[in-house]
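Q: How would the structure tokens look for this protein?
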Amino acid sequence: MHKSIISTPLSRLACFFGLCLLAYPLAVFAAHHASFDPEAVLARLEIKLPTPGKSIANYVGATRIGNTVYLSGHIPRQVDGSVVIGKLGADLTVKEGYDAARLSAIALMATLKAEIGDLSKVKRIAKVTGMVNATGSFTDHSKVINGCSDLLVEVFGDRGRHARAACGFSSLPLGSAVEIEMIVEVEE
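A: Here is the predicted structure in token form.
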């Protein structure tokens, strides 16, 4: 008579634990992803992602290499499409710069969504580089770019925490207050 490999109590126990060990990572993965819904957060914040605009020069808004998406610099656009212009330390307050950086983050997320289809595919916001149109004596670049960083963390949670640079420039394209680029790790 043929005897089953899992006929002994010890064999059955080993198979049970083996299946548990296989199932556990899948359950953790499913639970982790079930609670991660950046588009629901955007809806709760009443933020509607705009249709990404066309580039103003000879470049694309995003390039994907493997599971990394490189997003070109995005300038802050109001809902009506107008650019937030001005120089921090002369024309704009830190709060106005913060709000402009937040608008750039919204534009970045719109381009990212167009590139990957669903923001829940984001594994990590890896790096943000923020450029601030500022006077030579302005020193609150980080406070301005926090407008972008704070929104990314609010939308993506811990996945939104990133490395960052915030630098001052004497001018930016179209006279915009800020320009921000981003590098994102996404699911394959």
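Residues 9-35 form one domain.

Residues 33 and 135 are 44 Å apart (CA to CA).

Upvote if useful.
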